[in-house]
Design goal:
The structure holds two protein chains of two kinds. Helices cover about 75% and strands about 0% of the residues of chain A. By secondary structure, chain A is mainly α. In chain A, helix 2 packs across helix 8, helix 7 packs across helix 8 and helix 7 packs parallel to helix 9. In chain B, helix 7 crosses helix 8. Chain B has eight helices and no strands. Helices cover about 60% and strands about 0% of the residues of chain B. By secondary structure, chain B is mainly alpha-helical. Classes of the chains: A mainly alpha, B mainly alpha. At the A-B interface, helix 1 of A face helix 2, helix 3, helix 4, helix 6 and helix 8 of B.
Chain lengths: ~210, ~190
């Protein structure tokens, strides 16, 4: 086919209903969160001493960590949906949850006697943590991938991985209210593992569905 | 380049043309695609030459880029200039096309903006893979694309000939173009 012939077909193709990327991503986020919330209410639920726990710093730190992951990844995702996107300084904020976790771990190692380290790290709930976070992240990731299909990310695999991390951040926020393990030693071990699982799933989905 | 009034965007007539195109101006859109195609062609030729690949698939890269520009035009932010956005899409598609030709490691590709002053016309003998890929479309889609692109018929004439409504022809054309883009992508591996 000649290029001029292709252009004839392209210009005859009517202007489509415009896809508003930002709006579509926000809608996907809301929808995915709703799915995660339903799973949370049906299967997970808050821990019995939720109100008491709120007064402890270790418990609250879990929400801060989750938000520190979710927020920059969502904002970056909105940017990366476009082909000419430049991540910019926003990408550096992805280190925020890591720095926060590392600092918390250092403090924990200082204030907690050595013979308690291992039991705090292993906790009670590690298997539950690494399955429930990905489970609640799944609807969020699926919705985000659907929304991103309307975009044209330069690096489909990495963008998918970031969507997985964003979904894991939001799911961790919900899960944190259930989990009885509050030690940063636990959080810094199992939450990132769950996040990595989600990011790997996102990378796969990105390569599979976001190539253009 | 276009002589469309570029109010509010001096020196950037393409952004204005794309805005007009998105508002439904077919004539401006066609001219914009022709303009962009010429500079993308120069960009692709330079990239292929640098990677020591022959010219044979340059036109494929151009057509894939134009098709992607078309299918992804809503990802352009009208508050930004069109050039960098076209550059990102062209680079993505040229790299794809070079990989298909077996280029392992891509040499740096010059920026689209560098070719604005040196557009290149289509080689009249170059035929792209699009024709081969069109065989993956269903017969009706193929007929419609052929009628509008190769035979230069209008939507209305095509609708009349196929006993379809114009809307149905437009919908089928859009689906066909999307399918064509997907077929091209699959041919990468």
């Amino acid at each position: 086919m000649r290029t001029s012939e292709l252009i004839a077909a392209l210009s005859a193709d009517p202007v489509p209903e415009p896809i508003r990327l930002g709006r579509r991503l926000s809608a996907a986020l809301a929808l995915g969160l709703l799915g995660a919330l339903i799973l949370y209410l049906l299967i997970v639920g808050p821990r019995p001493d939720f109100a008491v726990a709120l007064a402890t710093i270790r418990f609250d730190l879990k929400f801060l960590d989750a938000a520190a992951l979710a927020l920059p990844s969502i904002l970056l995702l909105m940017r990366l949906a476009r082909p000419d996107a430049k991540p910019g300084a926003l990408a550096l904020w992805l280190f925020a949850p890591l720095v926060l976790l590392a600092a918390a771990v250092v403090v924990e190692l200082i204030v907690v006697p050595r013979d308690e380290w291992l039991s705090r790290l292993v906790g009670h709930n590690m298997r539950y943590c690494t399955t429930m976070i990905p489970m609640m992240a799944a609807p969020i990731l699926a919705a985000l991938i659907w929304a991103l299909k309307g975009g044209a990310p330069q690096h489909p695999g990495w963008t998918g991985a970031l969507a997985g991390a964003a979904a894991a951040g939001l799911a961790s926020f919900l899960y944190a209210s259930h989990c009885p393990d509050d030690s940063p030693l636990f959080v810094a071990t199992w939450y990132p593992l769950a996040t990595l699982l989600c990011a790997a799933a996102g990378a796969w989905a990105g390569r599979r569905f976001l190539a253009w | 380049m276009g002589d469309v009034p570029a109010e509010g965007s001096p020196g950037d007539p393409w952004s204005a043309m794309m805005k007009a195109a998105m508002a439904g101006d077919e004539t401006v859109y066609r001219r914009l695609l022709e303009d962009l195609g010429r500079s993308v062609r120069a960009m692709a030729r330079a990239a292929f030459a640098r990677a020591k690949l022959g010219d044979a698939d340059v036109e494929d890269a151009v057509q894939e880029t134009l098709l992607a520009i078309h299918l992804k035009r809503h990802t352009w932010d009208p508050n930004q200039r069109l050039g960098p956005w076209v550059n990102a899409i062209a680079r993505h598609k040229i790299i794809d096309a070079m990989r298909r030709r077996g280029a392992r490691r891509s040499e740096p590709i010059e920026d689209f903006q560098d070719f604005l002053a040196a557009p290149e016309e289509e080689d009249p003998h170059a035929l792209s893979d699009a024709r081969k890929l069109m065989e993956t479309l269903n017969p009706r889609q193929r007929d419609i694309v052929q009628s509008i692109s190769l035979d230069g018929q209008s939507i209305a004439a095509t609708a009349l000939r196929l006993h379809m409504t114009e809307v149905a022809v437009r919908v089928a054309l859009h689906r066909a173009l999307k399918a064509l883009g997907a077929a091209w992508r699959r041919s990468v591996s």
